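ok so i was messing around last nite and threw this chain in just to see what happens. nothing serious, just curious
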Amino acid sequence: MLEQIMNSSNFNYLGRGLAAASLRQEVISHNIANVNTPNFKRSGVIFEDLLAKEIGLGDDEAEKKLDIVRTHDRHLPIPEFPNHEAQIYEDDTTTMRVDNNNVDIDIEMASLAKNQLYYNAMASSLGGYMSKLKNVITSGQS
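result:
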């Protein structure tokens, strides 16, 4: 029973979202630290697009899939689909300055603020999910 609770899609997606936001925080901090380093190319994190493809929210109709639900322990097991983790990429398509550095401090600071809001939303959602689970387990008793 505990395995079913801990392997739920909400718990999985929210946990991976927190991990992606944490990785993005590190990457943005690394970009900001190297804003004056010659020949440095900024890096970024891709996660949301990979997650959208995984859960079938892609633009292509062929990528959309139906949810499969196992409603009883005696039913055949559902095969596990690959979990996409956040990936770091290097943006070498642009150059901002003469020294070949492409870090724009304004964009990085805005990305940092956006990522902080994303992380806080994921943490609040995960906290709410855990609170609901606790409420169900304890039957609403304090």
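not much to say yet. The CA atoms of residues 73 and 125 lie 28 Å apart.
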